[in-house]
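dumping this here so i dont lose it again. seq + smiles for zinc ion
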Amino acid sequence: MFNNIAIAAKLLANDKKKVLILDMDGHFGNGTYELTKESNDIFYWSLHEFGKNIYPQCGDIDYVGVGPGKGYSINIPLPQGVGDDLYMEVFNRFLPFAKNFKPDIVGVSAGFDAHKDDFVLNLKLTDNSFYEIGKILSENFGNVFAVLEGGYNLDVLQGSISNFIKGINQQPIESKMERTTTNPRIITALEPKLVTLEDTIHQIKKSE
Ligand SMILES: [Zn+2]
């Protein structure tokens, strides 16, 4: 088994390119993190479901990189039940950290198992979020490539992929669905973690 995105990022980094990996698969990319955590040429950014029974049972906010790579990883652990509203709010909130890194190229771990109808995870995204992520990436970054990862409900996977690509190409969304919302209790419970993560990254940057 090969970790395509990490291999691509390492090759690009060897070529003196700065690479942002956005991992939108609903699982934490523990392999990618392990392979990139000590690098400051590769910035790893993942949003994923996090909980006791969720593979790989790690990827909390303290996974911020190691040694020279400290501050070059941002991992956002989401509780089950997160919908389009909170997911995109969190995405946009942490986007400036990714932009400040000024990557030459963005590689996307394009997994779609955060979809509300996926069987494996308990996040509640619709294609609206995948479309928006694609659009935001193409509006903010010059070079974007993607590697297909998870997505286990084949009835919805095709729509997720094509809407993500529509977003990247800044074309109209194919199948707009009603945006899913998150229980306010989940939003309140997550907030202190997000603040701690922001503070941690700011502190690391300040001490650099
Ligand atoms: Zn996954």
